[in-house]
Specification:
heterodimer, A: about 290 residues, alpha/beta, D-Maltodextrin-Binding Protein, domain 2, 2 domains, 9-stranded mixed β-sheet, 3-stranded mixed β-sheet, 10 helices, 12 strands, globular, B: about 290 residues, mainly alpha, MetI-like fold, two-stranded antiparallel sheet, about 75% helix
Chain lengths: ~290, ~290
């Protein structure tokens, strides 16, 4: 029955969509696409922006930083959301296709390393974190905790957060290129999946965007190296640069932004736009 | 005369639709091959197929597919081991034992199971199933191949039940009547007469169930942990072929070796499901012949 109905329904839906898009084609929507970490933030900007400019639609889609860049190169997006810098390879491919990536920093984000609140370990160095995720430290008792196996949780490879954590933590600021995530590190598809898993597991350790921090988790204080201060991630410590695992949230456009895209980006960088950043638990640029 | 022309046109159109369906499959195959062929040439094919390290974004990248293939096989086997006994029992009950009113309720219910989106099953898996598995087996994490197998068993059940039920009900009535007339009990009739007569249909059901499970993505991505290790137990996390494509496609640079590798995985999946369906089809046709 359902199968028989599916084709007429599909045709119906398609025609409705055609009519809707046909009607609202007055002004082309700004296409914003990319990082899943940034997608809620971009959505919030869009909502605020469209309150002021109701006749300029902005469409936001996620999919990952790489997806955003691919769309920018294919010219199907006006703005790529990126939670990491563009790779050299990507810039090369873009230039080959006549797209000139232009980078704009729009917010900051700290990456919190989280464990269960019942886990007694509450401070680690970057080196120790690297050892954990590279599989060199396998038990909490090597870190002054109880005798319990460490379950390391990572975002999957489509995530800009994964790439950032790999380069800045696991590979120790790219100093040790031979280091990799150990093959038994669990790869979870979202920040939320990591939150759930860490909250319910005494041996788990994971990393999430600061905006996903909640009471069921404990953020570990991180020290840049042995002997330096251990710093707990917060808006203040990310902004003043003392928290070692923080990064920039970026927009990429094709060449310098113009017209309506420029107007939207100006709003994002304005005090009103940066207030949205704060309300979404990211860290403003100033 | 006019009717004849119309009939002719309609006949041609139907013929064309049939051809187009096959054409699409061929085109998909060619597309997968085109996107992945350089990958298989550039990396040593044997080394890739049997390599045990999957580090696609490292320098230099390692594209060992064996952990992913093993992951898919393990999850699928687990799901089939769970789904087939239950599915077979359910099908026998529905077609042979249950009264008519109950039969209708059960059939609709099981078909409804097929309508649950896999992401919903994945979500239930994370929130309900994984913690249970974690405590039951005292594991560091419940995100394991077993969790994936159980959830996928739910997805394979509707396929398996409806095809076996179909096979059982298409066994000629005279077989059953004959057996009962000879003094066999109902259970004996089912076991000795009905099941052997419907055997090819049962095999087809199992194969189609496997085909359904091995291609499933969203639920396994959410609940199997996705660690690309060589699994030696169903209580370990695994990374399946499908989850790898889904998880990495977003971050891949178009046209890069990694991009081609993902299409290569797609090609492998395509070949696997193609052969499974082929075998299922052979059994289905043997039954009809």
């Amino acid at each position: 029955m359902i199968k028989k109905l599916s084709i007429p329904i599909l045709i119906l839906v398609c025609s409705i969509l055609l009519v809707i898009t046909g009607c609202s084609a007055g002004r082309r929507a700004i296409q914003v696409k990319g990082s899943d970490t940034m997608v809620n933030l971009a959505q919030a900007w869009t909502e605020e922006y469209m309150k002021i400019n109701p006749d300029q639609p902005v469409a936001v889609t996620g999919g990952g930083s790489g997806t955003g860049i691919a769309s920018l190169i294919n010219r199907s997006a006006d703005i790529a959301l990126c939670s990491r810098e563009m790779k050299k390879k990507e810039i090369k491919i873009a230039e080959e296709r006549g797209v000139h990536p232009f980078e704009i920093q729009v917010a900051n984000d700290g990456i919190a390393v989280v464990v269960s609140p019942k886990n007694p370990v509450d401070q680690l160095t970057l080196k120790q974190l690297s050892d954990i995720f590279a599989g060199k430290i396998k038990n909490w008792n090597q870190l002054g905790g109880p005798d319990r196996k460490i379950v390391a949780l990572s975002r999957d490879r489509n995530s800009g957060t994964h790439v950032f954590f790999l380069e800045h933590v696991v590979k120790l600021q790219k100093k040790d290129q031979s280091r990799e995530f150990a093959s038994d590190v669990l790869m979870l598809p979202s920040n939320q999946a990591i939150v759930e898993e860490v909250a319910g597991s005494l041996g788990a350790i994971g990393y999430i965007g600061l905006g996903y921090m909640e009471k069921r988790l404990k953020a570990v204080a991180v020290a840049k190296e042995q002997g330096s201060d251990h710093v707990i991630p917060s808006n203040r410590t990310v902004l003043n640069g003392t928290y070692p695992i923080s990064r920039s949230m970026l927009f990429y456009t094709n060449g310098e932004p113009e017209d309506n895209v420029k107007a939207f980006i100006d709003f994002v960088l304005s005090p009103a736009g940066q207030k949205v950043v704060l309300s979404m638990d990211f860290v403003p640029i100033k | 005369m006019k009717n004849k022309i119309i009939e002719e046109i309609i006949e041609r159109l139907i013929y064309l639709s049939g051809i187009i369906a096959i054409l699409f499959v061929v085109l998909i195959f060619i597309f997968l091959l085109k996107e992945s062929i350089t990958f298989f040439f550039e990396t040593n094919f044997i080394q890739t197929l049997f390599g045990i390290d999957w580090y696609p974004i490292s320098e230099p990248p390692k594209f060992g597919l064996l952990p992913l293939i093993m992951g898919s096989i393990l999850v699928t086997l687990g799901a089939i081991v769970i789904a087939v006994p239950f599915g077979l029992a359910a099908a026998i009950f529905i077609s042979e034992v249950a009264p008519k009113w109950l039969r209708d309720i059960l059939k609709t219910g099981i078909e409804l199971l097929a309508a649950i989106p896999s992401i919903v099953l994945g979500f239930i898996g994370i929130v309900v199933l994984a913690p249970i598995i974690k405590t039951a087996f005292d594991l560091p994490s419940g995100l394991t191949a077993l969790a994936g197998s159980i959830m996928l068993a739910f997805m394979a059940m509707p396929t398996i039940v409806s095809i076996i039920e179909d096979a059982l009900s298409s066994v000629p009535k005279s077989y059953k009547e004959g057996a009962l007339a000879l003094g066999a009990t109902e259970l004996q009739t089912i076991r000795r007469v009905m099941l052997p007569a419907a055997f090819s249909g049962i095999i087809a059901a199992v194969m189609l169930g496997i085909g359904r499970v091995i291609g499933e993505t969203m639920a396994v991505l959410m609940i199997t942990g996705n660690a690309a290790i060589m699994p030696n137990s169903i209580l370990q996390p695994v990374r399946t072929l499908t989850a790898t494509i889904a998880a990495e496609m977003g971050e891949v640079i178009q046209g890069s070796l990694h991009y081609q590798a993902l299409f290569g995985i797609g090609l492998i999946l395509f070949v696997i499901t193609f052969f499974i369906n082929l075998v299922a089809d052979m059994f289905l046709h043997r039954r009809k012949a």
